[in-house]
Amino acid sequence: MRVALAQLDIQFGNPDENFRQVTTAIMKAAEEAVDVIVLPEMWNTGYALTRLAALADLNGERTQKLLSQLAKQFNVAIVGGSVAVERDGAYYNEMLVLNRQGELISCYDKVHRFGLMGEDRYITAGKTPNIFPIDGHPAMGAICYDIRFPEWLRTQAAQGPEVIFVSAEWPTIRLPQWRILLQARAIENQAFVVAVNRVGSDPDNNFGGQSLVIDPLGQIIAEAGSHPQIVTAKLDLAQVTQVRGSMPVFADRRPELYQ
Ligand SMILES: NC(=O)CCC(=O)C(=O)O
Question: What are the residue boundaries of the CN hydrolase domain, all occurrences included (predicted)?
């Protein structure tokens, strides 16, 4: 599986510019003949949470239309990062996943709201998992702060996903934790982790990128810098079978003790 990570400088509160930027990034990534393109968190608006009424994508329609059209045009799956969406008068931090045919195969609302960036005041939390196939391989997705909750990722990883896609707006100041948390999620779940962060800044935070691809042993196999860029990597998914076969961590679990 060849993946492209679109590390973008999201423009605060400017959906038109961000839709333009995402279109360009997907077109550029598709030139690399990848199977999946992954976007960062809240790429339509950034964390302009006080302006959601004016800026959020109503029912995710604009996002789904664009990503579906690009997926079909370039014959590529898209893990659509996340966007601010309005549904029935509530606001969500929502990941849309499209297959190569442009069909919506998963719609996930961030489960853990990040209070330090105001999500607890403006965003409604999701409560459903996010497992989907990419070309027949089981995969899953999480959004930023979700990675601090290993039990949430584990509950889903125990169902078989070989790749964990993560979309984030993770501030520079905590990047050392970003790296360690993602490596730990890869090791404990014996899965690839493909994690996209943004770069640039908003009125409250700087974002230093460092998007990562990590193998099931926790080794970093691709890494972005701190500027906008597309990073590509090849995942040898047979490695997941091999690592899980050599140490049966999932079979050895004692979930009856963990409540
Ligand atoms: N957008 C987020 O969820 C940020 C999470 C974060 O920065 C963290 O340290 O956790």
Answer: 1-237
